Amino acid sequence: MATTTETLRQIKEELLAFCASPLYEERTTNMVFPVIGEGNHHAKVMFVGEAPGKNEARTGRPFCGASGRVLDELLAHISLPRAEVYVTNVVKDRPPLNRDPKPEEIALYAPFLDRQIEAIQPKIIVTLGRFSMQYMMERLGLAAHIASISVIRGRVFDASVSYGSVKLIPMFHPAVGIYSRQSMPTLKADMETLKSLL
Ligand code: URA
């Protein structure tokens, strides 16, 4: 049986060759890269964002721009090293001009995320923003609990997965902390909820 690292490498190779996506065009015209995911292959906690931004697509690394700095600040708040967790997105290529991902783009890339989750087998999945929240809640059989992110952020949902059980915590996207520093206490409070489960 393939190891987690071998499976993740296979997923990476498939994504690098994934020219079926309409977003693939961006790679060839703008010299950008897909962002596969990064971190501990045996992480207990997996963070799932939305889609790469400009800096991420330039470097191929998730959350390495302004949103990433907020994410780092939030991780530091609970003394959780980034190297201990796994960070990825639902959509692996940058939507042009940072527009919202389209439902068909989410549908196209989500199977890769599903396989990353199956390989890493996190005990806790933290969604960052409403797109990953929506996708993961539907995927985990929690659709009946979907509500506005401002209502269900910071709540802990239990779900069954092929490898046992998982907890899902929806959180605001870290970009919220860039535009509104007043939201930082809320973002930090949700991280403290995560910390209480570690
Ligand atoms: N926003 C996201 O959702 N993901 C990233 O990797 C960067 C910004």
UniProtKB/TrEMBL annotation:
<dbReference type="GO" id="GO:0051539">
    <property type="term" value="F:4 iron, 4 sulfur cluster binding"/>
</dbReference>
<dbReference type="InterPro" id="IPR036895">
    <property type="entry name" value="Uracil-DNA_glycosylase-like_sf"/>
</dbReference>
<dbReference type="Pfam" id="PF03167">
    <property type="entry name" value="UDG"/>
</dbReference>
<keyword id="KW-0234">DNA repair</keyword>
<dbReference type="GO" id="GO:0006281">
    <property type="term" value="P:DNA repair"/>
</dbReference>
<protein>
    <recommendedName>
        <fullName>Type-4 uracil-DNA glycosylase</fullName>
        <ecNumber>3.2.2.27</ecNumber>
    </recommendedName>
</protein>
<keyword id="KW-0227">DNA damage</keyword>
<dbReference type="InterPro" id="IPR051536">
    <property type="entry name" value="UDG_Type-4/5"/>
</dbReference>
<dbReference type="GO" id="GO:0004844">
    <property type="term" value="F:uracil DNA N-glycosylase activity"/>
</dbReference>
<dbReference type="InterPro" id="IPR005273">
    <property type="entry name" value="Ura-DNA_glyco_family4"/>
</dbReference>
<keyword id="KW-0411">Iron-sulfur</keyword>
<keyword id="KW-0408">Iron</keyword>
<comment type="similarity">
    <text>Belongs to the uracil-DNA glycosylase (UDG) superfamily. Type 4 (UDGa) family.</text>
</comment>
<keyword id="KW-0479">Metal-binding</keyword>
<keyword id="KW-0004">4Fe-4S</keyword>
<dbReference type="InterPro" id="IPR005122">
    <property type="entry name" value="Uracil-DNA_glycosylase-like"/>
</dbReference>
<feature type="domain" description="Uracil-DNA glycosylase-like">
    <location>
        <begin position="36"/>
        <end position="164"/>
    </location>
</feature>
<keyword id="KW-0378">Hydrolase</keyword>
<dbReference type="GO" id="GO:0046872">
    <property type="term" value="F:metal ion binding"/>
</dbReference>
